[in-house]
Amino acid sequence: MQALRANSKFEQYSDAELVNRVSAGEQGAFEFLMRRHNQTLYRTARSIIKDDTEAEDIVQESYLLAYRNLNQFRGDATLSTWLTRIVVNEANGRLRKTRRRAEIIQLIPEADWSDSMEESPMTDLSKESFADQPEQAALRAETRRLIEAQIDALPEILRIVFVLREVEELSVEETATVLGIPDATVRSRHFRAKGILREALARDFDHAIETAFSFDGERCDRIVKGVLSRL
Question: Which residues contact 153 (CB under 8 A, 6 or more apart)?
């Protein structure tokens, strides 16, 4: 946040104005642009690639690509949409390469290969309040983990639509423009994604209810030890 405050002089400028300043050689303007759009682009990449580190790398590569081709930005769409398109293309390109590698690996069954697409939980998207009790923070973190895991489990074509519509709150039209698909397709995929998530989270909730207040491990040992010490 300190770096963002240091460049607060750019807050007054629109994206289009910042692009002009970047083109004029103001590096600070580009830094501010990145900080303004980082979260949206990271979430977009993460929804496709399902790997924190890879998503960060994709966003960095996309920024470099955008910087080198800034003169191609004509303002027909918003800068956010233009950048998101670049991220989607970069992420899909990485995904195709990964799948090709996986196909090659399958042709060599003797080799001991690890899964390069191993899922990892998404990093926290917001800081917990210092005033929170540890139990509340842990509960929210676990809830967030469950939600992120179920989003990761969505089919790829549904996952990216859900993240753009629900997490990034893009409109149907903006999402359609970013992904290059009809508005009706965005609506149908969004509806299907929400239905799948609703059912999956309901199952998670039912399982959590069944195992609530579990009485094993440290708690059981602690009570037994306490009683025995008083006998």
Answer: 200
